[in-house]
Amino acid sequence: MTAELTQQLMQIVTSERNPVATLTLDGDISFVNSSALSAIDTKFEGVVGKKLWDCPWWDGDSSRQATVQQFFQQATSGETTLLNIQCVTQFGLRWLECCISAVRNEQGDITCFLIDGRDIESLKSAKTDLYKSEQRYKMLFENARHPVMLMNGNVILDCSDATATTLGYNSKHDIIGLHPADISPGKQSDGQDSRQKADDLIDVALQTGSNAFDWHHQRKNGEVFPAEVLITRIDTDEGPLIHGLWIDVSDRKLIEAKLADSELKYKTLFNNSVDAFSLVNDKERILDCNMAYVELFGYQKVEEIIGMCPLDLSALTQPDGRNSREVGHKWMKKIFNKGSLRFEWYGKGKNGKEFPIEIVSSTLIIDGETMLYSTLRDISDLKQSKQLLLASEKKYKTLFHDTVEASLLVDSKKQIVDCNQAAVELFGYSRRDDLLGRSPTELSPPTQPNGLPSVQEGLKLIEITIREGSQRFDWYHQRKNGQVFPVEVVSTVVVIDDEPILQTTLRDISRAKELEARLEGMAYYDALTNLPNRRLFVDRFSQAKAHAKRTKTKLAICFLDLDNFKPVNDEYGHEVGDKLLVMVAERIKDCIREEDTVSRQGGDEFNLLLTGIKSQTECEQSLQRVVQALQEPYLIDDVSHHISASIGAVIAQESDKDLDDLIRCADHAMYRAKASGRNRFQFYKANIPYREGI
User: Which pLDDT tens digit goes with each residue over 269-284?
Assistant: First the structure.
């Protein structure tokens, strides 16, 4: 190489910002520029003259010499070769991409080799981050609580284990490769062919980006059930894919169907449903809503919502830029005319936060007035489904801690390793640290309603959940102040760092339990006296009849009618009459045994069921106590009232008829008691005509 060419080469090498070096044909370093020296934090003299593969800053194995010589051969043949090496630099280990080319003189002879380096550490790091992100998505996909599917067109490429479980298959591999119609009935509820309709809905998602709709799936055992589906287009290097998320809404559909049964059932379900409901009149004012609706928008009381316009709870503009009020007025008018509509909307909470909701509105006629009955559901999670594909652990933690439902993470040692603020507040504590490290059984009363110890039952349920993968059950927890309350527990196993973790959601169901108790009381007890009603009396009779047969004893059916009750009720009013009936009920209960039953049949009539009777004399003694107790004065509002009772009784035999026949016999005997002067009891005699002498 001439001196002039050598000088030009050195100028080029020296001016390069990237690390550059020249090598002799034997692999000796003949020159390095300042960028290279700075990168490896050494001096010119410490590098020049050394073999490239002997340099201490090249981190690698003993095959470095062979690697360099191989690349020299390729460069000699005219190829420009790339060599990735990991260097020890002042910034730590970093990856460099080295381009090796041969330098020739005017005669075409190779005089040296030129190495031009490029820092590719960021590229390597980006590839590593992408791999980790893919692994996180895979974990979220496979451990999703709800069924999730990935499709190429109309062919299922992959699905979560929850999909196979929900559809009743042993493995997700039984589903991969199927068409969505293969896990659906032949036709949908609207009569359309499932295969054709699925293809059409997928085409809409491919064209618009997403599509939400109702669908009917079919389990392996043939059971058909409704689902809500959101499918989203995902663009990849290989082309667009379809990400599908669906939820089994069988329970909610059943609830919606039962709303029409009765006003009482409607109101109960309306107020206690976890879905948000509202009623809007033709003036676009909210007439009623449930607590789920109130909480959805961040308010405290139903009264804060009543009278508002639904558009007051909407974002100023929708995602497409349209003004919410202009669009909202048109849509409500359309629903009133069309009858029903399903659409997505962006609402705004009391705190100003905007969030997406799915609204299903239909018209109802109540008292001759047309109303809009709407179901609202926060679909923020569904909207974020596409983003979750590449979400990081930090995003998951944010979702976990900000959810309004109480959530716990419990490790294999049965200890709480994480919880959200909703869980802290649910248990009445002020800090997360108050819950961390404790077992869920420590936050429970000593025993559950079934009498079993909470520790024993709790650990057993945790073991079952870990073994089976998921579990839903009712449980009683205890707050910091000692208050015991019921919750619905939904627990799912997720594997994090090869350790099974229970992701547990708790929902306070105190209101539902209270309602259940009230409904049970209304079904079996008289509202005024709290005595058993006829329904419970019939049940008690069946039990007593079986007991009498086993113990060789008898039972008596008695019909009691108050004497002179009507004059008191007419003269002093129903309020005094009601108080008198309550006092009568208490006196009768005091006169009979705990195993006996007194039931109010209506008005001033009562039935008695006396069990374990060995003789008629024993029965007479019980009835005499009742007659004497009821003839004593009743002091109500400083006024003394006097009434008495006439009682008819019949002792049942093994061959006797049913309860209605026995009550008629007792009624017959009661009228004989009244005819005999009242304030007494009579036993039924078959040879005396019905109501003789009345």
Answer: 777 878 898 999 989 9
Residues 6+ apart with CB under 8 A from 398: none
Do 292 and 278 touch, CB atoms closer than 8 A? no
Burial of 394 (0-12, 13-18, 19+ CB in 10 A): exposed
Instruction: For residue 146, count other CB atoms closer than 10 A to its CB.
Output: 17
Tell me the whole-structure pTM to 2 decimals: 0.34
Kindly give the pairing relationship between strand 680-683 and strand 644-652: parallel
Percent composition of the chain: helix, strand, coil (DSSP 3-state, to 5): 40, 30, 30
Contact 462, 500 (CB under 8 A): no
For tokens 């049970």, the residue is 520
At residue 642, φ and ψ (nearest 5 deg) are -125, 125
Candidates 686, 664, 669, 662; CA nearest to 541 is 662
**Which long-range contacts does 97-105 make (Cβ < 8 Å, 24+ apart)?**
100/71, 100/72, 100/74, 100/75, 101/75, 102/75, 102/76, 102/78, 103/1, 103/9, 103/22, 105/1, 105/2, 105/5
- Name beta bridge partners: 500: 495
Alpha-carbon gap, residue 180 to 219, rounded angstroms: 12
**What token pair was written down for 43?**
């001096």
Neighbours of 597 (CB within 10 A): 22
How far apart (Å, rounded) are the C-alpha atoms in residues 113 and 116? 10
CA–CA gap between residue 577 and residue 50 (Å, rounded): 116
Q: Which of 647, 645, 648, 665 is nearest to 656 (CA)?
A: 665
Token pair belonging to 191: 């009569």
**What's the CA gap between 198 and 185, in Å, rounded?**
12
Cβ-contact 273, 265 below 8 angstroms: no
Residue with tokens 């079993």: 452
Residues in CB range of 405: below 8 A, 6 or more apart: 422, 505, 506, 507
3-state secondary structure 230-244: EEEEEEECCEEEEEE
Q: Which of 22-36, 37-51, 187-201, 578-592 has the lowest mean pLDDT?
A: 37-51
pLDDT digits (tens, 9 = 90+) for 428-454: 999 989 999 998 988 899 999 888 998
Contact 490, 475 (CB under 8 A): no
Give me the amino acid identity at 259. Answer: L
Q: Give pLDDT tens digits for 585-612.
A: 999 999 999 999 999 988 999 999 999 9
Give the integer Cα–Cα distance in Å for 664 and 648.
10
What is the radius of gyration, based on Cα positions, of the chain?
41
Picking from 271, 258, 260, the residue whose alpha carbon sits closest to that of residue 512 is: 271
H/E stretch holding 455 reads: helix 454-468
Residues 6+ apart with CB under 8 A from 400: 407, 409, 418, 420
**Which of 24, 109, 123, 9 is closest to 68 using CA atoms?**
24
The CA–CA distances, whole Å, from 513 to 122, 376, 483, 588, 642 equal: 58, 24, 15, 32, 42
